[in-house]
User: Fold these one by one.
Assistant:
Number 1:
Amino acid sequence: MNIAANNPELKSWVNVPEDSHFPIQNLPFGIFKTKYLNPGACVAIGNKVLDLTYLNNNGFLDDLGLPQGLFNQASLNDFFRLGKKRVREVRNKVSNLLRHDNPELRNNSIAVEMALIDMKEVEMLLPVYVQNYTDFYSSIEHATNVGIMFRDPANALLPNWKHLPVGYHGRASSIVVSGTPVIRPKGQTKAPDQEMPVFGPTKRLDFELEMAFITCGDTVQGESVTVADAEDMIVGMVLFNDWSARDVQVWEYVPLGPFLAKNFSSSVSPWVVTLDALEPFRVQGPVQDPPVLPYLQFKGKRNFDIQLSAAIQPEKGPNTVISNTNFKHMYWNMAQQLAHHSVNGCNIETGDMYASGTISGPTPDSYGSMLELAWKGTKPIKLADGSERIFINDHDEVIISGYAQHAKYKIGFGEVRSKILPATK
Ligand code: CA
């Protein structure tokens, strides 16, 4: 697919620092506010945000014929509901306005002053109103590790795992944007050597390094989305930290699966990086053997080469990168996940979030959770300040970052950063 905004030769008149996550080839969408401006939609370019409400109100986007007030909102849902083609038109138009040889916006000093705002002066908000959140379990390395730790090393994967993308319905109301503190949850736990459960703050708070895709457009209940059409409904992706209380999880999850161990919070990065911008980074996923049923079969490259990392920043002292992994390892791809999700007629809505499940790579330094990195508490992780972790402590900040690397630029996601606060009394 030829997408004008992806041209690697493009340069912007806005200064983009070397190594920036946000060159002109990216142009992710987000929701921002400032001391003076109500929440509205914007695009990232270098260290600036470009105010889409200003551009739409002042004629710069007139040839697109967009609805009035489309961007002057606290979520991107109405924009994304217009569909992937319209989102692509807006991204191409913004790219055109930002290219170094187009004077239209560049030479309009009032417009530049009004529409281009330093990232330091803005607060980024949750990019979409999340109506529905689903969490998959699609990394074969993660599912195998968890199976070895909690069940049977000889039969680590359950019989269904290679036949369908396992998932569950998560909680949408507690999804928060990067920078929002997370309070250590309390819950019910039972140690294996105790007869009765106890109640208190989790002692095994964990992160899960994931990515999530966001849908654009709605289907009618009873309809299904095919694998071939699924990407037409996937507008873009964010980084996703699916917080987990492991001691609560292991006690509560039988027989219906995750509940309070998961629903207290998940944290997301604020920029929706479009699937269009990720187009040059398609790769072939792992071979699926045994072959999947026809409704899950796909053609072409459906995985994406996105480098991911997780770091812990203690209250004092430097941060330590504790994991480096890659989205390309996922056994089940996003098109298969969406096709499977809707194959029974479940309706898809604009702004839904679909998380990948923990993204673990093949080596121990590429695991996507403390549970695996410290192997159920048996192999403590040493931080740069000399302290050790088997799970996440109060006042630790967990930072997940990611980007796709092109020879000439990075398509970055920024980061999702969250500090853990002590449990409430
Ligand atoms: Ca998860």
Note: The chain has a mean pLDDT of 97.
Number 2:
Amino acid sequence: MSIALVTGGSRGLGRDMALKLAQSGHDVLLTYVSNAGAAETVVSEITALGRRAHALPLDVADAQAFPAFFETVRAALRSVFDAERFDYLVNNAGVGLNTPFQETTVEDFDLMMNVHLKSAFFLTQGALELLNNGGGVVNISSGLTRFSYPGYDAYATMKGGVETLTKYMAKSLGARGIRVNVLAPGAIETDFNSGAVRDTPDLNQALAAQTALGRVGVPEDVGGVVAFLCSDEARWITGTRIEASGGMFL
Ligand code: NDP
């Protein structure tokens, strides 16, 4: 039995990751920050696949609360999954910020840092006690670390940090057989940034025109890559960045 913990599993990319992990045979713990109903829907979808699932609230911007969160994880592992530990952590939860460099405030920067970078660092650190040897961590970055796009200065800077952190964590945790990789999606149609990619036809078409495969992404383009990285087929892959962008801005 294998158990995966997906942050931000209630919607968008995290929802598809949770479903693909379940289809690949994992039981799934997923988190949400405010949409308990959406999270419970995903739990029901996973249960319908014949796997166990449970949703827990978590604000990834609040690192001080992580020890208390892991106590709720410990309790859920025992009560729902009949387990003491889990196998894979997917650091996916996040919000965007599209603000020009000149107008980005200290508060904007801190939010991006807390949500994306500090959370990947301290949530993973906090998980170590409950993570099985031989398991893995998947961090979610963005194509925006490889190319620049106006307004993503603070956001992409944090994702760049997540990519560097991935290499360091892969080295630090390799002795336990824990593999750490980073997946960088391109533009995907989700609620992210108020659904900008999905709901703004001009933006959608402009990005599609800059993408080798001729369209922007949908969540179903990405979740299976996470399931692969959390499988034995990926057992020799660690410290690696994989981009799933359909070839954006090549
Ligand atoms: P969505 O807005 O569709 O979903 C965001 C998810 O994260 C929800 O489950 C939400 O929970 C959760 N979440 C948001 N803020 C917090 C928080 N402070 N603490 C805990 N959970 C939180 O976004 P996507 O699925 O598109 O994005 C997922 C990841 O993918 C992010 O890290 C994003 O940076 C990255 N990404 C997205 C791209 C895109 O084009 N969509 C491209 C490249 C990377 P709730 O439902 O409760 O609000």
Note: The pocket of NDP is lined by residues 7-8, 10-14, 32-35, 38, 58-61, 92-95, 115, 140, 142, 185, 187-188, 190-192, 197 (CB under 6 Å).
